[in-house]
Design brief:
single chain; 267 residues; mainly alpha; 2 domains; 9 helices; transmembrane; transmembrane helix; Arginine/ornithine antiporter ArcD
Amino acid sequence: MRAVLMASLIAMPALLLPGSSAGTTQIIALLALLAAALTFVEYTGDYPSIVEFRDAPPYNRLRFAALFLTVLLLTLICRGETHPTAASDALNAVGMRVGGLLDFPYSPVRLMVLGANADMTAAQIDRMRTFAGLAYLVSISVTACFILLVRLLNWPVRRGAFNFWVNLPLFDPTAGGDILYRLKRDAHVNIALGFLLSFLIPAGLQIASAAIDPVSLGDAQTLIWTMSAWAFLPASLIMRGVALMRIAALIEEKRRRAYAQANLQAA
């Protein structure tokens, strides 16, 4: 089921939007099959190799839901331009409202809109603002849900013990230094980078467009994936930072109990 959902995510814009060329469809089909195969291999193995917090739901489920929902909503709005429905009109109205509220000076949405190509029309720029506002709203909502889950529902030890090495396969225990210090450092770096990335990605797009031929954001599929990545990557980094900080707090608490018990036994 996870593999099917991952393949559906990759193929969704090409399947729902009209006008996709045969070459583009074949490439997207190949990417969808590759993503499904990697997901299947990862989750059927006894031990993870890449995916972090595999046995600590719903961390990865929230991240996938954020990306899937963002791509789905933006795709439905794009499809509504040629095949309008009540749902697409409602989503477009919500996106325009949210985009207008978040489009204030120096905001990530304003910076993303300023990165529009010079050849884009006013309607395409408005669509870009709508997509940016809706994608940013989804990312903020999912991040807030995860923080509440950690604070109120005692993630990740609510359902049992947390296996550090299974859930953090990319964390090298032999790198040296206190593991508690390294976890807190990585958590701070991820949170700071997550906040900055919303501003750095639009700046990077503008710098890249000045140096090389820019990718046209007027294309629907390109705009969908660009906006989804711009909103998802910062949210994912912030969620990872919050998760690492939570693991560090659990280790610190366990150390404190162990030290207190050792002192009592010594006394």
